[in-house]
């Protein structure tokens, strides 16, 4: 695989494989039976229509808004070192993002339709939301490059943790621990955190785009490696279709690249229409969402969902704040253990924000809401993000983009 050019192909350059470089050309290519091994590459833009915010948008992304949680840095919520010292912020966020609260979009059902028609070789996704599975794409067709909520295990001994117990813990905003009494390590979903390696399954399959006869890239900024390298594995002459809000990753530099810029669901609708599949696609969507149109966000319970990202983050912030709130009795214990003055000679007390700041610099075992003794200083407060692995949690959670 060579370096991908960033220069758009000249419009006068004829396509090598397609009869015309357009969405109609892609549709004809598929209808003629020339695309039988389609590889899909998806990111957070696929799920924003479900109501899930992406991670990297400057004003509305989860990272931008998580600053309100008073984390040392927004990405700390997905940093394995920070998680070891304080897992509660992640589990508060997980309560909002856990599968079941959001439903697949029209785009997700298009992925399923490709699989149903026997055209899908493999789906690579950066998303951690499991909406591809919920739409009916078979698990063996999916490579969750940055992990997902589908499985969970102890971060120390790697013992798997039951799905029902994990769901209950997240519903109750509790931090689960390993069921092995000799371990009792922290449990987390198999989401790739900063400081962790990508799944072996990704590395074993990352060469598959080289065997594809069509690649469709949807809703991703292609800014996070190694996922961003996948389109470059496609052989010269293999058509690549980008359905995205903007041109990314050197796509558009080859003679058979087609760019369909805009909303993912709108782009999928245009492609399905050109294929003659739109009635079938909308029927599948309607069967799973009888009370909703085939456009717009679809939530499990729309009335219970926040109206805006600001509302959602405000709710998360309150829950984290409530989780970190300490009783008067525990505050007195902290003052004693941390050598904080209880009262001055004039009768004033140490400001609560100072106690809270000291509290945040300590490490707890278990749920902060039930902790009543035993405070120890952090061994190694992370100062910066690990650089050996970059992730986009839905995406994109690397749950991100």
Total helical segments:
13
Query: N-to-C SSE series?
Result: HEHHHHEHEEHEHEEEHHHHHEE
Please state roughly what percent of the residues sit in beta strands, choosing from under 5%, 5-15%, 15-25%, 25-35%, 35-45% or over 45%: 5-15%
Structural class: alpha/beta
Described by strand count, sense and barrel closure, the largest sheet is:
6 strands, parallel
In angstroms, what separates the terminal alpha carbons?
24 Å
The average pLDDT is 76
Overall outline: globular
Q: How are the strands of the biggest sheet laid out side by side?
A: 3-2-1-6-7-8
Account of the protein in words:
30% of the residues lie in helices and 11% in strands. By secondary structure, it is an alpha/beta fold. Mean pLDDT is 76; it is low at 298-309 and 317-401. The protein has helices spanning 23-31, 62-66, 80-85, 88-97, 106-116, 131-135, 163-171, 200-205, 264-275, 278-288, 309-324, 328-337, 352-360, and strands spanning 38-42, 120-125, 142-144, 147-154, 187-191, 214-218, 240-244, 257-261, 362-363, 376-377. The strands form three sheets. It has a six-stranded parallel beta sheet with strand order 3-2-1-6-7-8. It contains 13 helices and ten strands. The protein is globular. β2, α6 and β3 (142-144) form a beta-alpha-beta unit.
């Amino acid at each position: 695989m060579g370096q991908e050019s960033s220069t758009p192909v000249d419009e006068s350059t004829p396509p090598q494989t397609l009869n015309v470089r357009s969405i109609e050309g892609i549709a004809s290519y598929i209808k003629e039976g020339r695309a039988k091994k389609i590889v899909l590459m998806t990111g957070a833009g696929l799920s924003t229509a479900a109501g899930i915010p992406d991670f990297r948008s400057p004003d509305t992304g989860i990272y931008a808004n998580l600053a309100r949680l008073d984390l040392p840095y927004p990405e700390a919520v997905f940093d394995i070192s920070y998680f070891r010292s304080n897992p509660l912020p992640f589990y508060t966020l997980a309560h909002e993002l856990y599968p079941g609260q959001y439903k697949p979009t029209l785009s997700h059902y298009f992925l399923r339709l490709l699989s149903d028609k026997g055209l899908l070789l493999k789906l690579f996704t950066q998303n951690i939301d499991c909406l591809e599975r919920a739409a009916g794409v078979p698990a063996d067709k999916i490579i969750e490059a940055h992990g997902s909520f589908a499985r969970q295990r102890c971060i120390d001994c790697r013992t798997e943790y039951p799905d029902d117990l994990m769901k209950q813990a997240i519903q109750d905003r509790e931090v689960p621990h390993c069921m092995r009494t000799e371990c009792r390590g922290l449990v987390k979903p198999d989401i790739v955190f900063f400081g962790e390696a990508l799944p072996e399954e990704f590395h074993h399959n990352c060469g598959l785009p080289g065997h594809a006869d069509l690649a469709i890239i949807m809703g991703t900024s292609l800014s996070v490696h190694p996922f961003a390298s996948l389109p470059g594995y496609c052989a010269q002459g293999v058509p690549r279709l980008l359905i995205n809000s903007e041109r990314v990753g050197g796509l558009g530099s080859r003679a058979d690249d087609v760019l369909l810029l805009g909303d993912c669901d709108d782009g999928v609708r245009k492609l399905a229409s050109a294929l003659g599949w739109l009635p079938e696609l909308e029927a599948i969507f309607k069967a799973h969402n009888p009370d909703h149109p085939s456009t717009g966000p679809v939530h499990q319970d729309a009335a219970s969902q926040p109206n805006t990202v600001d509302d959602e983050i405000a709710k998360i912030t309150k829950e984290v704040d409530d989780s970190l709130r300490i009783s008067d009795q525990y505050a007195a214990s902290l003052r004693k253990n941390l050598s904080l003055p209880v009262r001055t000679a004039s009768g004033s007390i140490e400001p609560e924000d100072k106690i809270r700041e000291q509290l945040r610099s300590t490490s707890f075992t278990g749920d902060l809401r039930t902790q009543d003794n035993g405070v120890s200083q952090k061994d190694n407060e992370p100062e910066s993000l690990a650089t050996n692995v970059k992730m986009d949690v839905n995406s994109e959670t690397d749950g991100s983009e």
